[in-house]
């Protein structure tokens, strides 16, 4: 049985709203932010073959499509309010739509946000999501606030998603359990919303790691007008990553991308406060470097403390990578 556009929306995506003033069904949704709060808005586009593989489980794809957008709100310290979904589909296939919607809406329910509108059309599989959040005036985490002397921190275990990609590319072999862990990191990232909220008032700058740690840190350094030094000896490592060759480690850690961890700066001496936040949120935090004056540029030290050549290491670029 062929599904039409509006039947597709009604069956898989239309639900009664609880927090929004008006949701799916009209020309516009209506959101009511908490009085005195500012709106935080972010949007991302995921294209099959560019951002995800055709073999990905639809439920995981639904989860990731929303997670990567929520990660942007986390990086700004914003509390999610709602989101819209634009979906291009080669065909209205219930076998894809049912698990996709399940994964998408399960994550939405966990963060108590609602799908309030969007669009569907025929075309190559493409997913566009716009998220809306709120943040108190003057408390948004920005890329432009890093100061000389700040420590540089990262959450979680960056690099594991890249290992999964290398397995899919046939350039790396992992055992079944390690591959399952890496694939989960790649296909089902966890947006660090609670961490972003907890960092308000403490972090001086923040960004989520989507295009590779080096590339995303570079955005912070340029916006803040500073330099930085990272130490590979401080990079977080689990057995999965620690067992790889040094060259693979560096690629995964520094340029892998698709991690959706938070990279942030905080004043020197904030370790105790940040470890308390790590305990509170259940997200491990790792101090990996320090902010330096602009003239120092960006340098990375290997495990022995020697500078490494960064000329062959670059973050993901949607038009060059």
From TrEMBL:
Protein residues bound to Mg(2+) 2: 44, 72
Give EC number(s), comma-separated.
Answer: 2.7.4.16
Binding annotation for substrate: 51, 258, 316
Q: Which reaction does it catalyse?
A: thiamine phosphate + ATP = thiamine diphosphate + ADP
Kindly list the positions annotated as binding Mg(2+) 5: 211
**Positions with a binding annotation for Mg(2+) 4:** 27, 42, 72
Can you tell me which residues bind Mg(2+) 1?
43-44, 119
Q: Name one GO molecular function term.
A: kinase activity
Residue ranges of every copy of the PurM-like C-terminal domain listed in the record: 184-295
Its top-level enzyme class, in one word, is transferase
What Pfam families does the annotation carry? AIRS, AIRS_C
Q: Which residues belong to any copy of the PurM-like N-terminal domain?
A: 25-135
Residues where ATP binds? 118-119, 143, 210
Keywords, alphabetical = ATP-binding, Kinase, Magnesium, Metal-binding, Nucleotide-binding, Thiamine biosynthesis, Transferase
Give the pathway: Cofactor biosynthesis; thiamine diphosphate biosynthesis; thiamine diphosphate from thiamine phosphate: step 1/1
Q: Which SUPFAM superfamilies match?
A: PurM C-terminal domain-like (SSF56042), PurM N-terminal domain-like (SSF55326)
Residues given in the record as Mg(2+) 3 binding sites? 27, 72, 208
Q: Briefly, what is this protein's role?
A: Catalyzes the ATP-dependent phosphorylation of thiamine-monophosphate (TMP) to form thiamine-pyrophosphate (TPP), the active form of vitamin B1.
- What's the miscellaneous note? Reaction mechanism of ThiL seems to utilize a direct, inline transfer of the gamma-phosphate of ATP to TMP rather than a phosphorylated enzyme intermediate.
Q: What does the similarity note say?
A: Belongs to the thiamine-monophosphate kinase family.
Q: What is this protein called?
A: Thiamine-monophosphate kinase
- Biological classification of the source: Bacteria, Pseudomonadati, Pseudomonadota, Betaproteobacteria, Burkholderiales
Q: Corresponding gene? A: thiL
């Amino acid at each position: 049985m062929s599904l039409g556009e509006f039947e597709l929306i009604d069956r898989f995506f239309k639900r009664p709203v609880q927090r929004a003033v008006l949701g799916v069904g009209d020309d516009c949704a209506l959101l009511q932010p908490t009085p005195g709060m500012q709106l935080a808005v972010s949007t991302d586009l995921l294209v099959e073959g560019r951002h995800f593989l055709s073999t990905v489980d639809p439920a995981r794809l639904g989860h990731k499509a929303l997670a990567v957008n929520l990660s942007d709100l986390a990086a700004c310290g914003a509390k999610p309010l709602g989101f819209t979904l634009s979906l291009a589909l080669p065909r209205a296939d219930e076998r894809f739509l049912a698990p996709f919607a399940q994964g998408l809406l399960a994550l939405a329910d966990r963060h108590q946000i609602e799908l309030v509108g969007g669009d569907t059309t025929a075309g190559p599989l493409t997913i566009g999501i716009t998220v809306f959040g709120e943040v108190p005036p003057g408390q948004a985490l920005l890329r432009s606030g890093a100061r000389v002397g700040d420590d540089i921190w990262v959450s979680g275990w960056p690099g594991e998603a890249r290992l999964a990609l290398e397995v899919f590319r046939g350039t790396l072999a992992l055992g079944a359990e390690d591959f399952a862990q890496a694939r989960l990191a790649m296909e089902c990232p966890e947006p660090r919303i609670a961490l972003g909220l907890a960092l308000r008032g403490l972090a001086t700058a923040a960004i989520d790691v989507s295009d590779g740690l080096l590339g995303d840190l570079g955005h912070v350094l340029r916006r803040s007008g500073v330099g930085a030094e990272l130490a590979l000896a401080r990079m977080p490592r689990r057995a999965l990553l620690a067992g790889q060759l040094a060259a693979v480690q560096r690629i995964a850690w520094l340029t892998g991308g698709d991690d959706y961890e938070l990279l942030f700066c905080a004043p020197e001496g904030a370790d105790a406060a940040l470890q308390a936040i790590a305990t509170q949120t259940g997200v491990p935090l790792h101090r990996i470097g320090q902010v330096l004056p602009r003239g120092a540029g960006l340098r990375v030290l290997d495990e022995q403390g020697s500078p490494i050549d960064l000329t062959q290491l670059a973050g993901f670029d949607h038009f060059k990578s």
